[in-house]
Amino acid sequence: MIARFFPFLLTVGTVLGNPHGHTPACKYIPGDAGWPSPKTWSRLNSTIEGRLIATVPIAHVCHDRGAFAAYNETACADLAIALQEDGAATLQPQPGEIMNPYFYNITCSPFTSVDTPCELGNRAVYSINVSGPADVQAGLKFARKNNIRLVVKNTGLDYMGKSSGKGSLSLWMHNLKTLELKKHYRSPWHKGAAMKVGAGNIAGEVYEYIATKGYRIVGPECGLCGFAGGYTQGVGHSQLTSAYGFAADQVLEWEVVTPAGQYVIATPEKHADLYWALAGGGPGTYGVVLSVTVKAYPDGPVAGGTLIFNNTDADAYWEAVGIWYAQGPSMVKDSPKNVQFFVSNASLWVFAFVMPDMDDSAIHEILAPFLPELDARNLPYTLETHNYTGYVENLNNSYGALPYGELCPVYPALGSRMIPRAVVLNETANKNLMDVYRKYTAGGDWFVGCSFLDTVEGGDVRPEHPPNAVHPAWRESIAYCNPNNPWKWETPEVSIADKEELSGEFFPAMEAATPGAGVYLNEIDSLYTGPWKDTMYGINYDHLLSIKHKYDPYNLMYGLFAVGSDEYTIDEDGRLCWVGY
Ligand SMILES: *[C@@H]1O[C@H](CO)[C@@H](O)[C@H](O)[C@H]1NC(C)=O
Ligand SMILES: *[C@@H]1O[C@H](CO)[C@@H](O)[C@H](O)[C@H]1NC(C)=O
Ligand SMILES: *[C@@H]1O[C@H](CO)[C@@H](O)[C@H](O)[C@H]1NC(C)=O
Ligand SMILES: *[C@@H]1O[C@H](CO)[C@@H](O)[C@H](O)[C@H]1NC(C)=O
Ligand SMILES: *[C@@H]1O[C@H](CO)[C@@H](O)[C@H](O)[C@H]1NC(C)=O
Ligand SMILES: *[C@@H]1O[C@H](CO)[C@@H](O)[C@H](O)[C@H]1NC(C)=O
Ligand SMILES: *[C@@H]1O[C@H](CO)[C@@H](O)[C@H](O)[C@H]1NC(C)=O
Ligand SMILES: *[C@@H]1O[C@H](CO)[C@@H](O)[C@H](O)[C@H]1NC(C)=O
Ligand SMILES: *[C@@H]1O[C@H](CO)[C@@H](O)[C@H](O)[C@H]1NC(C)=O
């Protein structure tokens, strides 16, 4: 904890809250005397060639009160449907909007009454429509000088609401759409193809681009998920993790502006500490990433398919689910294989087998020890297999049409726990985990999405990767599992209760059943109560914190559960306040 020895700490007690003693502890929000005047904002706008956008909530058409009121019954009804049916496509392209309904918080919403005032709530007040490093530098400088909260928004898909914040200035990266395949990339860590991906690209756009080029890359299953932001910076699991490692393991270069305004390319050799922290140490913490360059691999056939069996006899069903988990490690051992499935009270549904460079005999092979267990328990099943010509074809078929995909719940109450090999292979521990699943899925509302993968370091399946900040617990996991409950837009109080049940009971029970494991820092509920420094960052936390302090001495970067976030608090009016080391 290097920070403990910084000499300026002696002044913290007297100059409340800021290590440099120049600005107040809390960032200003509109209405505060210190909030910049229209003229000051206008000056910022001129320095960035008119790229400043004042947020007007998209749901202003649903209200007849408040500063943005513009009620239109038809437009509001259309929006209510659009949010529920294709929320990603509706909200992602909007600069100030928040995709996560918990942080959206029904401030200015089709689901509140017409006479509720339309207010910004947690939305940024202004966004900079970023076109390059100079816009980011201008935003950072303005936020620092004027004591304004800064947020970085690529897609707005963030379970912790990191891309939103009351009274904030948002660096809106949406239009950074670089997609560049470099067939002959050379560096000490990689000789071969690489992809440069802009911060504004969602994964679906990357897949559509690369599908016809003869390459595959490690990316998220969900097309609507951003690529270069929280996903890769927060570890990034993938259907291709068994084959090539985590998304963070693939990074060759980060194009980044540091909070102090320096524009750098961070690689394993240059600005190596920043490179290391950005690769798995969490987004929105160490710098503003404009693009990432990752390894690309030659594409080839991928076998895929589905398997489903139903809960027609509860004891037999849960026994079979337990056996399924116990066989998980051998299904993927020392191989590029991946198996993704949902467990609910109704069924175990494998919606994706991912067998890179194999035909469907690989699926029949891994199921050979399992299917007789279903027969023995009188549990009928349906199995379907396919030989696809490439990776994206398999993904597109299991997750639904790109770019957004259909299978991914846009707004769930969600957690994600790593499942250690030692747990599923131990009969007692396995049974304990199954009992937790059985108990919480019994109501019919919760299901658990899981992915079996092989992540063991060494061996010759996966390429070597540069040192990075991926939580070491990931390398001992056989699966990650996500308890999941879709958001109910029209009854947010029910969804808040779901979140409370998840964070208060279900997830702690999963943690207790999987001792010593970590959580996926990108897919955790915002009400999470576990020991987050340990479960999200593990032994890397202190080193990450020293890098955060080195690169962000001005306290510009904050996100819930981000490294160093306990140095801040949100006051009763929603201001972000620095409370000290
Ligand atoms: C910034 O300037 C542009 C161009 O003059 C203008 O269209 C835009 O409305 C301005 N933004 C704000 C927030 O005033
Ligand atoms: C209200 O919204 C509808 C649908 O978007 C649009 O066609 C109509 O012109 C709007 N009415 C007014 C008065 O703006
Ligand atoms: C949502 O709004 C309520 C008050 O309207 C506030 O108490 C709560 O803290 C807000 N939640 C978030 C996540 O901002
Ligand atoms: C943002 O900037 C891009 C060009 O970089 C432009 O095409 C787009 O219209 C701008 N968006 C908004 C909402 O101003
Ligand atoms: C499982 O249940 C679903 C829904 O009731 C049904 O459509 C399907 O045929 C069942 N599958 C098997 C293998 O029994
Ligand atoms: C997949 O390819 C293998 C090898 O050619 C073949 O035996 C199998 O029948 C094919 N499966 C399907 C579903 O076409
Ligand atoms: C994905 O599937 C849809 C049909 O479901 C198809 O129209 C589209 O071309 C596919 N996209 C890719 C990239 O394979
Ligand atoms: C198996 O798991 C149980 C329950 O967690 C634990 O008490 C026991 O020590 C474990 N056995 C072994 C051999 O690790
Ligand atoms: C859970 O599954 C059992 C079958 O084992 C069934 O009887 C029960 O109705 C299911 N519960 C819900 C809420 O679907």
Question: Please, could you describe this protein's structure?
Answer:
The protein is α+β, with helices and mostly antiparallel strands and 581 residues long. It has 3 domains: 7-175 and 557-578, Uridine Diphospho-n-acetylenolpyruvylglucosamine Reductase, domain 2 (2-Layer Sandwich); 179-298, Uridine Diphospho-n-acetylenolpyruvylglucosamine Reductase, domain 3, CATH 3.30.465.10; 302-388 and 409-531, 3-Layer(aba) Sandwich (Vanillyl-alcohol Oxidase, Chain A, domain 3). The chain has helices at 38-47, 73-91, 101-104, 133-146, 203-210, 230-233, 241-244, 272-278, 314-332, 361-367, 371-376, 391-399, 421-425, 427-441, 492-513, 532-537, 541-551, and strands at 52-54, 126-129, 150-153, 169-172, 179-187, 190-198, 215-216, 251-257, 263-266, 288-295, 297-298, 302-310, 338-343, 347-356, 381-388, 413-414, 417-420, 447-452, 477-485, 568-570, 576-578. Strands 12, 13, 14, 15, 16, 17, 18 and 19 form an 8-stranded antiparallel β-sheet that branches. A 5-stranded antiparallel β-sheet has the order 5-6-10-8-9. Strands 1-2-4-3 form a 4-stranded mixed β-sheet, covered by helices on one side. Strand 20 and strand 21 form a beta hairpin. Residues 1-21 have low confidence and may be disordered. One 2-acetamido-2-deoxy-beta-D-glucopyranose binds next to helix 12. Residues 45, 50, 52, 54 line the site of one 2-acetamido-2-deoxy-beta-D-glucopyranose.
